[in-house]
Specification:
There is one protein chain. By secondary structure, the chain is an alpha/beta fold. The protein has seven helices and nine strands. Bound molecules: iron/sulfur cluster (SF4).
Length: about 240
Amino acid sequence: MQKMNNNRIQLSEIFTSIEGEGPFFGTKTMFVRLAGCHLSCRWCDTTYALGMNTGRSYSICEVKDLIIELLQPSTYKINFTGGEPLIQHEAVAELAKFMKQKGGLRTYIESSCFDSFRFSEVLPYIDICKIEFKMSDSKVVDHKNYSDLLHNETQCLNLAVSQHKSTYIKIVVTNSTNLEEFRNLVKEIFENARACDLIGFVIQPSYGVDEPPLSKLLGFYDCVFPVYEEVRIVPQLHKFIGVR
Ligand code: SF4
């Protein structure tokens, strides 16, 4: 993985839109999209931000100024997203810390949780954590690295709940997702977190790629409901209303 310059940040875009995913969907949100992701989910919808040289290079100070300049009234939260924000985790920590010091705005990280150490460095400045577990059919990493990814995702879950962050689980499912694999993952998740530790569990159907039919979605739902009744099947809202 390419080493980043600590004083600079490779930024894909900053914009304000409507949160389209998870329990906070519908909230007015500032998105700070960092460039670069070394993973390869087959349903990735931000392929334009995957390259480490996409977007533009800024100093951290420039990005702080941009955030303040572009921040709209009534914004509910600021999302550090990507690409994969943990590739530039030091910059994310610095920006999230800055936002906490400025006061008020909730900070949120959307990551694949591929590295629990980097996650732990950012976590003190983050209020809301989406812990995403990737199913093997996502093709996010090759087979030999998949258990390492799952281990890091589980570690990130442990860190988030132990620090009493607002934590929710997201899993993208497709028509190829294996129900038994999903069931085992749910078991593993609830061996590491109690239902009361979570603010949500979102099953997100893939969009435009190998979409799962209703019968499959209900099968996934039925795996979670006995241990967590607040499970929801939530498609990405922004796709339906045609915004970023
Ligand atoms: S982790 Fe996110 S940004 Fe990276 S390939 Fe997967 S969906 Fe795309």
